[in-house]
């Protein structure tokens, strides 16, 4: 007999699998049991053990390193009937879960962009202004090239990961609201990514101009 302990917010539940070991129980089976208990749509139900998200519904529970009497944390929101009826195409709770997943991922991206993008824009402007202040004798930029590179990597990688998350959200053809939500999320994220890449291109162009100026100075000496 195997007992699996689940904690969902303040609620707890133990599932018992008679005459079975962890290697015989698939993650998908446990997720389905959690869905039946909590009424959280499968598309928005996540299980976490030891700080790591449990993925691949076909994987046996034994591959997640679960110890006897170990506790698995469940994440997810149980939608109300009003939410489902007003926010989805045909009142399907699974579509609601996808919409929430997309919106939460987008909001996380927007929060990071709001924090870092303005500083990156200011740093890029400062770098370019300092570098081009005097063509004959360029000043040392107050913002280092490495700082700009680190900021660009942080923003671009975060935005690319968000695009991959949206791409991985499989919406049925009749989930029209979820599909539209995903399209808008992709469009907005791509817009920020294009802006970040454009600023990075301006920095590279500035670097090239500085290099040419230095070469010209060396030739004149």
What does it look like?
- It is a single chain.
- The chain has 221 residues and is an alpha+beta fold.
- It is 57% helix and 11% strand.
- The chain has 5 helices and 5 strands; from the N terminus they run E-E-H-E-E-E-H-H-H-H.
- Helix 3 packs antiparallel against helix 4, helix 3 runs parallel beside helix 5 and helix 4 runs antiparallel to helix 5.
- The mean pLDDT is 89.
Structure at a glance:
The protein is α+β, with helices and mostly antiparallel strands and 221 residues long. The chain contains five helices and five strands. The longest helix has 45 residues.
List keywords for this structure.
single chain, 221 residues, alpha+beta, five-stranded mixed β-sheet, 5 helices, 57% helix, 11% strand, elongated
Topology diagram in text:
Layout: E1 2-8, E2 11-17, H1 27-38, E3 46-49, E4 52-53, E5 71-75, H2 81-87, H3 93-131, H4 145-167, H5 176-220
Parallel strand pairs: 1-5
Antiparallel strand pairs: 1-2, 3-4, 3-5
